[in-house]
Each structure stands twice: as structure tokens, then as C-alpha cells.
Amino acid sequence: MNAFHNHPPMNIVLSNLVPRLPLSFFDLLRRELEPLAAARQIDEARVRIERPERASPPWHVNIQLVTPGPDFTASAAAHTVREAVTRVIGDLAGKIGRRREALRQRLRKNGATRGAVARG
Asked: Under CATH, domain 11-92 is a member of which superfamily?
């Protein structure tokens, strides 16, 4: 269990379509995903890594975060696998932040509306 939340740790499912991916990649991936898991419950992170022949940039990373409520998906291509992961994580962090802010605004609006109706 996560020390800060009452939910189980996320499960990472890796679809590696690249022969000889560095062993340190999984550690990098887990370190990059931890801040997202602190911001939102993530049941599973589905990660797909590709390095298509003759593609430029050569590294393609896609991550789908399975969460209660809507899932979050992002993809990126870059010249290094680290850069591709960093871009995807940044995109996912932005999506999670925007979702959280929209929810806060909706709750504020609904609370203000209910208060106005109750007073009126």
C-alpha cells in the first residue's frame, strides 16, 4: 500500500517491442510514474515502447494510465528513450492536472449554486 493513499500500488505492464532495452529503463519508468501516482490513483500503467525501422525520431513511447474514472493516454516520439518517456509523462501530468482543476471548478460552481438557491 502507498503510504500516502489508501489504494494498492500501481501495476506496470510493459510491451517492449525493442530488443535489448536497457535494464535501467524499468527503474526510470517507475521513478517517472511515481509523482503521477501520488496525484491520482493509478491501477495500472500500460507502457508500449517501439523503435520502428527508419523512423525519425526513432523511439516511440505510449502510456495508458488505467484509473478510477477516465483513463489517461499519451504518446511521444524522441531521439532517446529517456526523452520520449519524459515527454509522455509531462503530457500525462498536464492531463491529470487539467482534469483535477476542472473537477475543482465544477465542485466550486455546484457548491455556490446550491448555496445561492438555499439562501434565495
From this structure: Ribosome hibernation promotion factor-like (3.30.160.100)
